[in-house]
Amino acid sequence: MAGSIDGQVLRLDEPLSFWGGFDATSGAVIDRAHPQVGETLAGKVVAMPGSKGSSGTPGVLGESIRRGTGPAAMVVTKADINLVAGSLTAATLYDRPCPILLVDTAQLESLIDGETVIARPEETS
After folding, report:
1. Residue 1 pLDDT grade (very low, low, confident, very high; cuts 50, 70, 90)
2. Pick the residue with more confidence: 71 or 119?
3. Which of 45, 56, 102, 116 has a 20 to 30 Å separation from 6 between CA atoms?
């Protein structure tokens, strides 16, 4: 189902820069100053306060999703046009969706690293 989130949570303590802080080839956080350096985002529901960085984010994120090294979904507390652009690019060009869910801080903090989450949009008739 389009827009469904289903997977293991990887909580990032700080925003991530996909341009320079993430390796699209391996799916790993490579920013040495990031608390989760070395963690792999591939196939995870990445829960983070947001992203940081430049307009290079959509290209890096979209390429990682295309390769299968990017997140399966993202949960963020701050709307981010660069994350949306990367996700839409992968969905449109490669038929590889990466839903993004906007939540408040309390909801983000309730997610436990390593737990499995499932969120499906309500169906209307």
Report:
1. very low
2. 71
3. 56
